[in-house]
Amino acid sequence: MKFIAGKRFLIFSFLTFALVLGIASCNPASNGGGGDVVVASKGFTEQDILSELLAQQIEAKTHLKVGRLRFTSALVTHQAIATGKIDGYVEYTGTAFTVILKQKVINDAKVVYEKLKQAYAQKFNLEVMEPLGFEDTFAMIIRGEDAKRYNIQTLSAAAQYTPQWQGGFGYEFIEREDGFPGLAKTYGLRFARSPRIMDLGLIYRALLQKQVDIINGNSTDGQISRLGLVVLKDDLRYFPPYEVVPIVRKQTLKKYPEIGKAIAQLAGRISADEMRQLNYLVEGELRDIKDVVREFRKAKGF
Fold first, then answer.
1. In this structure, is residue 92 part of a structural domain?
2. Alpha carbons 168 and 175: distance in angstroms, whole number
3. Which residue among 135, 154, 230, 251 is the one 20 to 30 A from 84 at the CA level?
4. Alpha-carbon distance 126 to 203, whole Å?
5. Domain coverage including residue 149
6. pTM for the complete prediction?
């Protein structure tokens, strides 16, 4: 689409600047990352929760102190772990496969995981651990009233209405290999005006206030059910699998093998509904993340 070409250079420049700034400023001692090991978040609620879950699990099962850092994107976080600035974080297989490895979309979750595990070990000396048990895929979301008014349940059905709609998407989604450009091509999405590039923290408010009519979110976002929103079905299976996996430096696991054992206890133990509830407790009820994670670990017996 024409509007993408017009913005590509500016967005690329911004991402490059953010990447350099993020890595240059990643000093554990000055950014809350001091500890025997450091885990990171990619900068949104679910990531903050999962990062804290890793940190608390390691601290509870070992004698190690864990530092916490927060970044702004997949690229910045990946560079941080690849260069040894951090020791671990939680990633989504589809993101790692298409954004980091720059591979074409594969819809088989097992194939993606195995290819990812092998490539990360060979290219970056990183261990892709067992999935936590749920998938968090991209979600294209509209207001419930619009879904009912136009009888829309799928992205294919939504395509006939997008010429009258205003889109609102995160800057990373606009540029990603598995993001908006490919989605628009697959479904023939056309907008009268260029989609607004928005901060993900404001995107749901913009949808409710009718500043935009369709947004990108995540399937485990707590706001979806709470705000009466509707996720459009990806009926053409455009999005790749996004299983949630911890990624840890092999050098760290060799130095502290107890970390691997601690994290392995989380494998397959978290459902999408549980993650959605955790997100809601933080975003909807404004609960403290550390308290929410502590209570969750106790309830699950971790």
1. yes
2. 13
3. 135
4. 33
5. 138-232
6. 0.76
